[in-house]
Amino acid sequence: MQNLRAPAASALITVILILGAGSPTGATSSTPPGGAAPTRADAWRWPLAAPHPVTRAFLAPASPYAGGHRGIDLAAEAQQSVLAPHEGVVSFAGTVVDRPVLSITQPGDVIMTVEPVDAVVAVGDRVRAGQVIGTVGSGGHCPPGCLHLGVRLHGSYVSPLLYLEKLPRAVLLPTAPDATAPRSGPWR
């Protein structure tokens, strides 16, 4: 019985480390706080026409006020059409510091923000996925030719790629074959 507990405990620790359960805020986890990533049926559309080169990746902050990159940057052309990634209601369209920003809220306490975007929609407008919501503007932390996309779930920033791409499911394998386990599978 003792021989079976060690591998089970090791597997549990591995799962905890992979899922980031050790984070007190969940900020560094790739799984959105308060729930799982959306299913494929809920997947969003990219806010720009293909291709979708990510020029700067999401980097979760260690705490709500720490440094990080709270979204992804996509290569874009000035005045390129920006599309609504999902259905929702425009909750903000205006200037923040030195750049035009647009936010869309959807059920489930999810807010998507794109910048710099010169909006063609107004606060309160309902938008559908794929609808033109503006054009790539200028200003902000992105160099010209860049669109920043951020996503907040229940107030915490999460990687937009959780919504835009189907991420592969993690498959856990034993670290070493157990002498008492049946000899089958690829680790024979």
UniProtKB/TrEMBL annotation:
<feature type="signal peptide">
    <location>
        <begin position="1"/>
        <end position="21"/>
    </location>
</feature>
<dbReference type="InterPro" id="IPR050570">
    <property type="entry name" value="Cell_wall_metabolism_enzyme"/>
</dbReference>
<dbReference type="Pfam" id="PF01551">
    <property type="entry name" value="Peptidase_M23"/>
</dbReference>
<protein>
    <submittedName>
        <fullName>M23 family metallopeptidase</fullName>
    </submittedName>
</protein>
<dbReference type="GO" id="GO:0004222">
    <property type="term" value="F:metalloendopeptidase activity"/>
</dbReference>
<feature type="domain" description="M23ase beta-sheet core">
    <location>
        <begin position="68"/>
        <end position="160"/>
    </location>
</feature>
<dbReference type="InterPro" id="IPR011055">
    <property type="entry name" value="Dup_hybrid_motif"/>
</dbReference>
<keyword id="KW-0732">Signal</keyword>
<dbReference type="InterPro" id="IPR016047">
    <property type="entry name" value="M23ase_b-sheet_dom"/>
</dbReference>
